[in-house]
Amino acid sequence: MNIREYFRQKRDERLMQKFSSSRLDEFIRKYSKPMEVLFTYYECALMEVETKFKVLDQEYSLIHDRNPIESIKTRLKTFDSVIEKVGRYGVPLTLKSIEENINDIAGVRVICSFPEDIYTLAECLLEQDDVTLIQKKDYIQNPKPSGYRSLHLIISVPIFLEHTKRDMKVEVQFRTIAMDFWASLEHNLRYKRDIPEELSAELADELLECANISSSLDLRMQNIRKRLEEDTSEMDDMIESAQWL
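Structure (tokenized):
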């Protein structure tokens, strides 16, 4: 379904109480086609960033004989979600306002093997001369009270169109497998559930403990990898020395 069809379907629905139907109708009449074009630009930006990570992963595997990236996921926010966020932020319901104020319409999630890989990949990405860092939030060094861990970057990348180029914002989230596993389950357990206050507090404590265990597992697995790499390096040195005897 394209954006114009979607808007026609939603025309008589209330996306949220913050906007009157007349305001939504005006927005639909004025911006349906430009909104469709804008979302296509965001899709192009997702392809650009995804390709960058695939190249980095390939190069890293050649140099270090392992892949730091387990998987790459991309997503484009739904139109409902964008409009809802405009209302929540209290910004004007215009195309320009959406592009300027909603930074996570396009999102890339990079799932890494180990915590160190997250910072290595983030640094490599930001070293590229066509990538501009807009915002950085490190929830690994400073986890949320819930226990949530991830590294979030808002970046700007150019997309090259027929006669010009255009800078587009993309949110990049870095997680380890364990971080992603915890975040996905936490979201599924909490999302849109009418949980009694007492039970909610108990679950929050339990989820925080699980997050801490998950973080500990990440570090232990990372240390095991380092020990294996050190042993392999020592063995290679011994073999090389023996060849000279």
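The mean pLDDT is 86. The longest helix spans residues 197-242.
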